[in-house]
Amino acid sequence: MSAATDASNLQDADLDTVLDRRSAWEKTKNLAKKQPLGAFGFAVVLLMVFMALFADVITSYDPEDISFGDMLVSPNFDFLLGTDQLGRDIFTRIVYGARTALLVGITASVVGAFIGLILGVASAYFGGTFDLLFQRFMDVFMAFPLIILALAIVSIFGGGVDKVILAITIPFIPRCARVVRSNALAIREIPYVDAARAMGFSHTRIIIRHMVPNVMAPFLIMITAFVGQAILTEASLSYLGMGVQEPTPAWGLMLQGGAEEYAESAPWVPIFPGVAITLAVFGFNLFGDAVRDTLDPRLRSQQ
Amino acid sequence: MYKYTIKRILLMIPTLAGAAVLIFALMRLIPGDICELRMAGEGAWVDPQAIKDCQNNLGLNDPFFVQFWDFVWGYVVFDLGPSMWTGKPITEEIALRFQLSMEIAIIATIVGVVIAIPLGTISAIKQNTWIDYVVRSFSIAGIAMPSFWLGIIIILGLLISTQHFFGEPWMPPIEYTPIWVDPAQNLLQLIWPAIATGYRYSAVATRMTRSALLEVLREDYIRTARAKGLIEKLIINRHALKNSMLPVVTIVGIEFAFLMGGLVVTEQVFNLNGLGKLFVESVLNHDFSLTQALVMLVALIFVVTNFIVDLIYAMLDPRIRYS
After folding, report:
1. What pTM did the predictor assign?
2. By three-state DSSP, how is residue A172 classified?
3. The complex's ipTM?
């Protein structure tokens, strides 16, 4: 190999690091090497999505099938993780439970973050009295711990998957709006927003076309960071008997009632659903951390 | 500082007033008549006169502003009226359980902080080594693990280990023993729910300690301390740790307020008769007057805790001067 090609290779490599010209796959590989925890989190998220999508392929049992002949059977080859007090296969209910968890977690965070995004950007854009009043209004919502507000909302509308999603979405809106607003405040001061206004664009157009795309980083961070929390809240609500209702398979619900009662004689009943919740939230949090580290350069070196 | 304190106290008023309006409105959003729902349940027949009496007794036929005034004024004079379910005064119901919940919250805070500061420090000093990864996984797991599940596992562990070592399964007692009656018995009962809630607490505080310490360790004066040959232990203890405690104090304060939420589930697991359990029961029983009072109490604790945290913050850091 001649010295000339060596030099040009070196130059190319330098340029690559400067211009970040690597392929997507290489970037992913690099990211996984730099953030092993984030990669693990992503793997868990993928596993959950896979379980949710192909639940009926993964297991041949019906999650709602009650069989009194197979009550509290310990884990074996027929029932991988044993059965519960109604003879339902726990593995099957965990696999189908991923559907419920993902449905609630993702819907609540995406819808909540989206409404928070619009409100936060609008609040920053209009400023003045509107901003002040809006912020005080958000403060009021923030004065309640998430689960307390969610419980209060559930007490009005009752349980069930759709109500639980609503109860988790509402407390999330102000949390997202606040973060987005503080980011949008800085963007409002950048000249292109003035330029857009000078060109006579409408408020809606400036907000949606010029401001929203520039707060995408905190928006995505909020979504990924919240999915885990939403899954946890859903599990807590279901455990208290005020979330997802029987017979829908949900992890929190599986820990309710029988789980404690049979804890000693059938420890697989309380152990496995809890492991599923912990692993899912663990995965989403690690994934969220990695997303934040990648999208927010200011925090990158600290974490 | 003096001026700032007054200003903060005054700013708390609109937030609390807003919270009161929000709760009040939420409780009035409940579909159907409260008395009917309470007495008739799912379609049973009830004397219409009884329902009317019930409404009158609860003041539900009063205009909204009168009801709202009663609710807010009740908080000022510490008389929140009767519970719709038991008929006992709400103030009494709360007073009965306040001590238990507060005690768990305080023990959980101690457990959390005692775990968090050493772990966070080690993790920051050994950044990106296997120790760091283990501590970080431990703390992220703490945020991921539902406290009620940890509670169930603790009970299961206690049952199995006592069975193994003493030949007889033992579970933390359900009946509350006040601390002045028997401190040992009291601790033996409350330490378990405190650990179940405190793990999450420690996880959050560990992460905060770690990142705050990492930031401080990059400061110029740390480099100066190293340059003049100071031993690493002194640098960490004297120079770094002290200055990284500020954000940790904040997170400890904020989490203390959130503990109130965590207790809702933990008390259910350990079957303890605290505020959290009372709240769950009030929601399940459609006891709206009690739900309303309890949610407001949580908001009150939350807002006041935040205020205290801000004051401590200002006291700890002489550079912060609020105007």
Report:
1. 0.84
2. helix
3. 0.83
